Amino acid sequence: MDTGGGNWPPLYSKLLPEDVALAIETRTPINIDGRVVDYQTFDGALLHIGGASYKGLSTQADYRQKLSDHIWNRYLGGTQERLVSV
Questions:
Q1: CB 7 within 8 A of CB 14
Q2: Which of 44, 4, 5 lies closest to 27, judged by CA?
Q3: Which listed residue, 7, 27, 65, 66, has the most CB atoms within 10 A of its CB?
Q4: How far is Cα 72 from Cα 79, in angstroms, rounded to an integer?
Q5: Predicted confidence (pLDDT) per residue in 48-76, tens digit
Q6: DSSP characters for 47-61?
Q7: Taking the model in full, what pTM does it have?
């Protein structure tokens, strides 16, 4: 998945419409300590944490750790096998 940006002129502008598919966007509510945030999910597979490095709850170290743990536990089989922790 690519949001376009700088890739539009050299790449995407040359594609025919029938050669491109759009992702289906849904919202995934995630509850961390009673704070529910709706995150974007694309095609039921890609969870997008917008602004994770510069705004909102995602910039708080404690929240980032809990969000990471939640994602690992809910979708990836648990935290015990991950190589890197936030």
A1: no
A2: 44
A3: 66
A4: 6
A5: 887 777 778 878 889 989 999 999 999 89
A6: EE-TTTTTSGGGGSH
A7: 0.68
